[in-house]
Description:
Layout (H helix, E strand, L loop, with lengths): L22 H6 L4 H14 L1 H12 L10 E2 L7 E2 L4 E2 L1 H14 L3 E6 L5 E5 H17 L8 E4 L4 H13 L3 E3 L6 H11 L3 E5 L2 E3 L2 E3 L1 H9 L9 E5 L13 E3 H4 L12 E2 L3 E6 L9 E5 H16 L6 E4 L6 H13 L3 E5 L10 H9 L3 E4 L1 H10 L2 H4 L8 E4 L6 H11 L6 E3 L34 E4 L12 E5 L9 E2 L3 H9 L11 E9 L5 E6 L4 E3 L2 E3 L1 H9 L4 E11 L3 E10 L7 H15 L7 E4 L13 H8 L14 H8 L1
Helix pairs in contact: 2-3, 4-5, 4-6, 4-11, 5-6, 7-8, 10-11, 13-15, 17-18
The protein binds adenosine-5'-triphosphate and magnesium ion.
Amino acid sequence: MSSDSSAKIETVLQEERVFNPSDETINRASIKGFAQYQKMVNSAKSDPQKFWGEAALEGLHWFKPFNTVLDWTDPPFARWFDGGKTNVSYNCLDRHVKQGKGEKIAIIWEGEPGEVRKITYKQLLEQVCRTANALKEIGIKKGDLVALYMPMVPEAAVAMLACARIGAPHSVVFGGFSSEALRDRINDGQAKAIITADGGFRKDKIISLKNAVDSALSGNSCPSVESVLVVKRTSESISFSPGRDYWWHELVPAQSIDCPAEEMDSEDRLFVLYTSGSTGKPKGVVHTTAGYNLWAHMTFQWIFDVREEEIYWCTADVGWITGHSYIVYGPLSNGSTTVMYEGVPRPSNPGAFWDLIERHKINIFYTAPTAIRAFMKSGRDIPDKYNLKSLRLLGTVGEPINPEAWIWYRDVIGGNSCPIVDTWWQTETGGVMISPLPGAIPTKPGSATLPLPGIEAEIVNAEGKSVDVNQGGYLVIKHPWPGMMRTVHGNPQRFRESYWEYLPPINGSLVYFAGDGARRDKDGYFWIMGRVDDVINVSGHRLGTMEIESALVSHNSVAEAAVVGKPDDIKGEAIVAFVTLESGANHNEKLLTDLKVHVSTEIGAIARPDEIRFTNSLPKTRSGKIMRRLLRALAAGEEVKGDTSTLEDRNVLDELRK
Ligand code: ATP
Ligand code: MG
């Protein structure tokens, strides 16, 4: 932590644009206008037990209702809805079928080579029951952990729901991870089975998933694993280990469609999921049944407010928390139609997303700033070729969105009429925490706006004291919420220390610290300023990375920027910016000077980069987040140390070293 005990982060960016919800947006919304939002906030605050208790009874099906809402007698270990019995797969499937929605499409899936599958709620329920029975047949019992290492095929969602149905927690490992990363996660969780595929399609290539599983398991390096269930996807040749490996298409279809959902305790584990690893070694985040289900359910409803006939698409991979909460559990718990897409935009098919929106008439589109910046880089000509009129709401998640990227998204993709929901949250929070509600909260480009009802977020200094308006500090959450992580898998002490004891208690209560720096403006809006680990200390001024990066991105030639500090004898730290340019822009001496001047005029001389390095790409996690930690080492001329297993492309580091 900084030696400056007030540890405030100075703000340099001023963004004044405000977009009010249109009459049309307000009229169709379930939460209409600011007053209604405020009313919800007030009732959640004045009586959280009543607020969440009612929400849980209304939002979920219970085999047996709970006795208590929140038990916070042993902080930071919360218990929500104790005494209750419920099942997430029941909430996502059975109850909709029972209510006559069996013929509604649950999942529209589009495969990378272009095939489309539409699965109704009734069909999905049957597939989930069959898969659940298959898991039982290979010896999986309630409480056993199952690792998933899957391409983006419907079977991934089916497998997650099947695990939930029999009470076997899942641990989804992103299909783009290496066999070493898979092995670490299998061993950390002591997975008893793995569900995978022969291979998957990714950016015009085939990735051999089963081979990677075989190497992860080789030499008895994962002794907990007893069986491997393999979906046939690419039909490449793979090796099969009899007695351990099973084909999905042989085992699953032969099962009965009858598999009653296990009555789970509210606090039974639903899944373990590892964080993206932007700042260090990933942590195994544990989520439990009822609280997580409720949080995914409510936040999906509040933010996306999907109508019965609407089609919703989140472009994440199921390997990330966004895929868990907003491709699978949130949409299905609400009985919505969710799109799953196996492909990603790439040079051979740059308009892939827009093509999908046009063909499936998608109404709600939820993606990441990294994708939006890539689209900006390749120019508006590409999306302009498609009919995107079906869109009604746009969302973003994963990183701070630079105001210029926000404006581009609204203009080019949203035709200047779709509200944008910039949703701030984390693997640890289970679901969105800070976001506009489209019919209630005016938006400002680059701000995630206001906390959802029941979320008591605040900005404090290192002593836990609230900071003034527009002063940067630590983003904290002061009251437990249903979707909060329950522990770090196998390491409760790390859970306590990294999240609840990083900052001192406030008024005697532990507070959750999220790792991010932020400020609030005069309207109480939250502006995420970047990770506190990444804060730069220039001549005693502590600057967040986001504001300097946004100033760079607001220059016509710049597509993407990452800013880090480098040790400097005089200033403490000097500012080094790594910049990628829009296609067609020339990197020359003049642009270098222009960019420095641009930052000075946009936000002030204090933030002027001392050094700018042009590059073709930035190091990112496999979920698309910039890894400033690696750039910091490069800028200082040091060896890149620490965990790099989550790095998307190792070549990027080599390129940057040159
Ligand atoms: P690790 O904790 O292992 O370093 P990670 O924090 O990248 O990995 P995730 O849980 O996937 O893992 O990401 C959560 C983080 O993403 C947040 O703490 C925040 O820094 C960033 N983030 C997510 N959404 C937003 C948003 N809308 N605005 C700003 N930042 C965001
Ligand atoms: Mg994190």
